[in-house]
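If your schedule permits, I should be very grateful for your opinion on a structural question. Please examine both parts with care and let me know of anything in them that strikes you as inconsistent. The record follows directly beneath this note:
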Amino acid sequence: MSVRRFDRLLVAAAVIGAVSLVGTSAPASAQGQGPQDPKQQEQKKQQELKKQQGQKKQEEQKKEQEAKRQQRLPQQQQQQLIDQQQQRLVQYRDQLDQQQRLSSQQGVQLQQQRRMAQYGVQQQYTARLREQQRRIPNTRDYDYWGDPYFYTPPSYRYSRGGRYYQTNEYGASVLRQAVNYGYEEGFWAGRADREDRWAFNYRDSYAYQDGIYGYGGFYIDRADYNHYFREGFRRGYEDAYYGRYRYGEYATGRPSVLGTVLSVILSLEPLR
């Protein structure tokens, strides 16, 4: 046999051997791999489920943001609300100045009546009013167009004096604040009258007559704030004067109105 023929035979044998190996061998990663562990399968399912839930939540958030963007009030209506707000702030500043003069007069009267506990409460209330007045923003510097209250449509309605009014969540928050502040101030006034052995009379309290602590002059009319502040005040006064907690509770050194009572006082009705 010639050398050349022998070489050809060797090459053919090598090719046949390689083909045999390819047909019979399995990938390294598949060798020795048995059925997947049920725990691993369950973990994989849970991970996939969480991923799907996360994607769904993101899509819902995007839809919600888009819906809110589309529900913005027209620019003309926003301007009307801004004009009303600027007038409201001017009136609010004037009233604060007037109420502080009345506070001085009533302070003298309380001292003459020897109602020293009530006098102390009244002085503290007046001091908080002065601090509140210093925090009123300058109308020229305030970013009205960036404040969401002025472009968010109404979402609630409430009734006062036989008439219905509408507001959004930002205005509703101020109404809740009015009741809460009113209850707290009424509580201090009621406890003071009890300490002074004075007759039950919440209407005689300076804070009740004033009715604007915590207001700030924003989002709702002063008359609305006054009304709900006084609704909270008389309940707080009654609880403290009689030493009970029918309308609120006393926790962490501060009185607060019960959530159920707050809901009944406001009776906010969702518009949608």
